[in-house]
Write a structure and sequence with these properties.
Helix content: 40-55%
Shape: elongated
Order of helices and strands: HHHEEEEHHH
Oligomer: single chain
Strand order of the largest sheet: 1-2-4-3
CATH class of the largest domain: Mainly Alpha
Number of strands: 4
Number of domains: 2
Radius of gyration: 36 Å
Strand content: 5-15%
Distance between the termini: 63 Å
CATH architecture of the largest domain: Orthogonal Bundle
Length: 212
């Protein structure tokens, strides 16, 4: 259940930084999906409004533009300014034409200009909700992680021991240390092929044999 929840709500390869967005998957928030669609298809949406207005008014030369003062607007030449619909709102008069806005265009403009900021807000909210849901599973997750880490460590030791034919030492309560034909696992890997590390024998009196 928990894995399915995460897989459903978080993208497969999420960014490390939450503030960059792009963490939450599509299909979990209608508003988020709508805003992403606006960002990715803003030109198509503006083009559709332009074509709809051309069809409605019969003014084939009208076009949609943008500037930092008025935002998005519909521009027509002076030849057609008296043919504009009553629901168009005049915003600017030019030498050669007029610029108007409509409710539909302003709503789309608000979505486009505020989409990125709103997307980040929504993603943060959705991510926090997911974190709160997962919080109930913290202890079992940590317990399972510790067990998996222990198994992974022991398995690695076992594979290395089998590959290099290591022998398990016998440990007792005496104070003597008796190493016969000892091998250094790190140095041995650096030796030329076929050459082994120097066998040593040591006891509690720290005696060592010489390499032959």
């Amino acid at each position: 259940m928990l894995r399915e929840l995460i897989e459903k709500q978080v993208v497969t390869d999420p960014p490390v930084n939450l503030s960059k967005g792009g963490i939450m998957a599509d299909g979990i928030s209608e508003e988020l999906d709508d805003l992403r669609h606006v960002i990715h298809h803003s030109k198509d949406l503006l083009q559709k409004i332009q074509q709809d207005e051309i069809q409605r008014t019969g003014i084939n030369s009208l076009k949609i533009g943008f500037n930092s003062v008025f935002g998005y607007y519909i521009e027509v030449t002076n030849k057609y300014k008296d043919q504009t619909p009553a629901d168009w709102v005049r915003k600017q008069t030019l030498t050669n034409g007029e610029r108007f806005i409509t409710d539909e265009l302003k709503k789309l403009e608000a979505k486009i200009l505020g989409a990125e900021e709103r997307i980040l807000e929504l993603e943060e909210q959705l991510f926090q909700q997911l974190v709160f849901t997962i919080a109930d599973y913290i202890q079992p997750i940590q317990h399972n992680s510790a067990l998996i880490a222990r198994i992974d460590c022991l398995l690695s030791f076992a594979k290395v021991a089998a590959k290099n034919q290591y022998s398990r030492p016998v440990i007792n309560d005496s104070l003597a240390i008796d190493i016969k034909e000892g091998r250094h696992p790190v140095i041995e890997q650096q030796l030329p092929l076929g050459k082994t590390s120097c066998p040593t024998t040591s006891t509690s009196t720290a005696k060592r044999s010489k390499c032959s």
